User: Fold DUF402 domain-containing protein from Streptomyces phaeochromogenes.
Amino acid sequence: MAEGGAVTHVEAGGSAAYWNPGSRILWRYRENAGERFHIVRPVTVVRDDEELLAVWLAPGTECVKPVLADGTAVHVEPLESRYTKPRTVQRGHWFGTGVLKLARPGEPWSVWLFWEPGWQFKNWYVNLEEPLARWAGGVDSEDHFLDISVNPDRTWDWRDEDEFAQARRDGLMDDRLAARVREAGRDAVEVIRAWGPPFSDGWQHWRPDPSWSVPSLPDDWDRTPAHVST
Assistant:
């Protein structure tokens, strides 16, 4: 994919390339305990280098999301059966304000910035996940359920602990993975308490280039990369 931007640099060993600002790539998540992609979001690259990948998910972007087999939204299903009922995927659009996503190479979380209408900054959101695997058309990961919400006043709290516990009960993660996710969460909290990057970098004042159009969702959004790297 990588529409609208050529490669500017190749990392050591040629394992992955950096995208130009304005390039369009896919940010994807595999289903838990599976190989299929069930969350796919076309995004625009804001920055990409050896320190950070920053992308913009624009309002109105067509995305792929998981739903129950009968089309019911996942979040309305009772937690006790949310992860055991058959699922499929559905195309839809990202409503509301856009999201800025920030990820540092090899880190087991990404940081998302949310705004209220009118660019009133709302909060940071630490999404615990597998470190991003890069390929020619974007980045892939697997969500780990547990998250952290960080407020503008720097206070924070754990999110989705109930989903994390249910996922463990339903066999979507074993004890070893759960321990690794908890450790990653504690590491993220230390960054928050120290107010390190990216929280200290002023990204809440960033705005998208007004010339950027909304990326389209390709028909082959679920293609398997020929090569990935982290």
The chain has three helices and 13 strands. The longest helix spans residues 175-194. The first strand starts at residue 7 and ends at 10. Residues 1-15 have pLDDT under 50 and may be disordered.
